[in-house]
Amino acid sequence: MHRVFNDLGLAVLVVVAMAVAPSIYSNQLLLFNFVMFLSLAQGLNVIYGFTGYLPFGYVGFFGAGAYGFALAVMHLGFGPPGAMAVGAAAAVVLALILTPLFRLSGAYFAIANLAAAQAVYEVVANPALEDVTKGPYGVSLSGVFAPNASYAAAVAILAFTLLLVVWLRNSQFGLSLRAIKEDPISAAMAGVSVVRGRTIAWLLSALIAGLVGGSFAWEVSVFYPETAFSPQFSIFAVVFALFGGTATLTGPLLGVFILYGVYNWIGISVPQYFQLIYGTLIVALVLFLPNGLVSLLTRRGIRVP
Amino acid sequence: MLIGALLSGLVFGLYFTLVGLGLNLVFGVMRIVNLAHGDFLMLGAFAAYWMFALFGLHPLYAALAVLVVFVVLGLPIYYLIVPRLQMARDAEMLSIILFFGLSQMIEAVTSIAFGTTERSIPGRVLGTGPVTILGQRLPSAWVFGAAVSAIAVACVYLYLYRTRLGSLTRAVMVSRDEALATGIDVHRVSALAFGIGIALAGIAGVFAPFMLGSVTPALGPEINVAAFAVIVVGTLGNPLGTVLGGIIYGVGLMLMQTYFSSWANILPNLLLIAVLLFRPEGLLGRATRRA
User: Fold this and answer.
1) Nearest by CB: A282 against B93, B100, B263
2) Are residues B273 and A123, on separate chains, in Cβ contact within 8 Å?
3) For chain A, which residues lie within 8 Å of any Cβ of chain B, measuring from their own Cβ?
4) Counting one residue from A and one from B, how many pairs have CB atoms under 8 Å apart?
5) What is the count of structural domains for chain A?
6) Interfacial residues of B (vs A; Cβ cutoff 8 Å)
7) What is the span of the domain harbouring residue A167?
């Protein structure tokens, strides 16, 4: 029980901090981006950290969420909560369509997932679908623009995501996922349902990205397919999660606070230098610290939430 | 129109074979995914551009220079990264992330050094006037690029099947452990294969300004998707399959551009997913990689 309280304590601390942050710091859009990446990095953690499948096209679910939100507002006249639900559903449906990719192992899965995200982008951005998606010309949802409410929604999504990770770390289901990751054949022999476990983690991970995408669409209200499907989202989520350490609660949080902090410090003005720094960081990380920052503690036997 | 699309598809197919071949060689020998492949191609394109802009050097000489420099460059990169990477538990997956980082470094350094403007070389450098084949007129730069690609592919074939080092390379491809046990210097063979792999990307890059239009430092990622589609269709780890994959890709691309031009960009992605799902071992492979 002690462990659960440690995990929960950290989750509550982060959520409360991000909830009160706008009253201390005035750049709400920047704070929103932090909340968004905290959720995305943890969402990626759910599938990569707990099952070992790397979704290199994770942005596909994010974009599906953003466009699901936009289409529901534009064509169905939904309010933001209903539109969020549509966005989340779009992401989950996309994930369901892509479940056959789990037949592929390792690198093949990552590459196929990347190609799938690209394919969805090509469909959404296609000028032939201008009547439905507005094609490459982008969508404008100024009618529902409400930055305070969308920020609150993003914090709520973060809370849901962190609780989910806490549950995965402390439940029998999470344990069975890690057994599958270590050795799927032995896990199956021991009576763990491999396919069911992976599929649930996959759908949960997509659900998080879809919700975050919906809140992103609501927050920025004007965006283009290149923005909503920017590979940058997948890349940042992977790098942040990896930098801190996957399969933990602390790791991806650390990754976002440190790296996204550095990005906002130097990356906006000189993006090439930031690109060089994080490229170097990734290479160094994989070679020397493949289990992330938290492994500096965990390999000494210290348990990190 | 159909014959025109098929012919230009064949021409581009040969070129895309060259684009994918190096990636496939590296994967076949080392079982790692070089996600910086497209960036080495971009570096080749920039080398060709500068050699032409500064010294008026013909791309053919640029290709030879790139071949030598990239093979030599590949050896230290291999020894710095790959042996350490292969000690990891899940080297294949980690290699994607690592080489993605390398790709970012290359793109960033190139942007810092040369800026992000589009660079191109006039097509007339490779011959003026269209070439007429079967009553179809093709730009001579395309035919030139395809011919060089075909020669490069033939050289790789001769290296793999007619030289001693090539036999050793194929032995490592079949089984790294058994190659080690029979006393093959796996690292030497692999390092050379890595150098050749990125040199092939570099040579493809030299002709990229003619085949793909102007180039920027951000060219890498889209090349990677195309290269993956080519080698996955033609069986990963099988260099000869790449020819088949390249031609299917080239012909498919040209047919799409002729008949459904607005959907042509989606082709590499769909081809990749479809082959991975329905025939993950590629068109020429045996069923060995079902997970």
Assistant:
1) B100
2) no
3) 52, 54, 56, 100-112, 114-116, 118-119, 122-123, 126-128, 231, 235, 238, 242, 272-273, 275-276, 278-283, 285-287, 290
4) 132
5) 1
6) 33, 81, 84-85, 88, 90, 92-98, 100-109, 111-112, 221, 225, 228-229, 232, 262-263, 265-266, 268-270, 272-273, 276-277, 280, 289-291
7) 2-229
Contact B98 A103 (CB under 8 A): no
Residues in chain B: 291
Residue A224 lies in a domain: yes
Q: Are B34 and B23 in contact (CB under 8 A)?
A: yes
Among residues B278, B277, B271, B274, the alpha carbon closest in space to that of B20 is found at B271
Domain assignment of residue A234, yes or no: no
**Domains in chain B, ordered, with CATH?**
2-278 (1.10.3470)
Tokens of A76: 């169905």
Domain-embedded: residue A123? yes
CA distance A20 to chain B (A): 35
CB B227 within 8 A of CB B23: yes
| Cβ contact, residue pair A273, B93, below 8 Å | no
Q: Which amino acid type is present at position A18?
A: M
Report residue A125: phi and psi, to 5°. -85, 0
Q: Which residue of B has its CA nearest to A129?
A: B262
Q: Quote the CA–CA distance of A234 and B282 in Å, as a whole number.
A: 27
Chain A residues close to B102, C-beta within 8 Å: 279, 283
Each residue's pLDDT expressed in tens, for chain A with a length of 305 residues: 678 889 999 999 999 999 999 999 989 999 999 999 999 999 999 999 999 899 989 999 999 999 999 999 999 999 999 999 999 999 999 999 999 888 887 778 888 898 899 899 989 998 888 888 898 899 999 889 999 999 999 999 999 999 999 999 999 999 999 999 888 899 999 989 999 999 999 999 999 999 999 999 999 999 999 999 998 899 889 889 988 988 899 999 999 999 888 888 876 677 888 889 888 988 998 888 888 889 889 888 888 88
Please check whether residue A260 lies inside any domain of the structure: no
Nearest C-alpha neighbor of B275 from the set B222, B236, B224: B236
**Tokens found for residue B64:** 């030879």
